[in-house]
Amino acid sequence: MCFFDDYRHDDLAILELREDIPYSVFAQPICIAKNMDLQKLKTWVQATGFGLNYRYSIDNSTIQHPVLRHANMQIFHLPPNVHFFGTENRDEEIGLREGDSGGPGYIEGADLKNVLLGVASTGGGFKAYFASVGKHAKEICHHTGIC
């Protein structure tokens, strides 16, 4: 893809592994959004991350614990001509936290296959913003052959 030294651009990275990852209950294939058609306001997105939770010990020092997190979040922000979308879950007041960047934002497609809509970029509290995979479908196809 391209590199921009500017945080307002996307948080996408493509890695090529030397070996295949064996599928398991923890590692499963996912389809990539081919465009932005599935990104619609009020669409519910599954978000997953492995980030930090903070708590304080008896002596008030901060202890960080990495936690595998999952949240159902609804798209509430779709700026025109921008490469990201915003999600929130005000009902359950859950979301993504520090360290969750890079986690998937996905939906279950009509054929019951999961479709990756975005990659977690930033967030906090009950909001999270995702870099749009559909916006970059052509670049992903060009660099990986996954079209």
Can you give a write-up of this model?
- With 147 residues, the chain is mainly beta.
- The chain has a single domain, classed as Thrombin, subunit H, CATH 2.40.10.
- 5% of the residues lie in helices and 39% in strands.
- It contains one helix and seven strands, in the order βββββββα.
- The chain has a six-stranded antiparallel β-barrel with strand order 2-3-4-7-6-5.
- β5 and β6 form a beta hairpin.
- The protein starts with 30 loop residues before the first strand and ends with a helix.
- The mean pLDDT is 80.
- It holds the Pfam family Trypsin.
- This is Peptidase S1 domain-containing protein.
- One of its GO terms (molecular function) is serine-type endopeptidase activity.
- InterPro entries: Peptidase_S1_PA, Peptidase_S1_PA_chymotrypsin, Trypsin_dom.
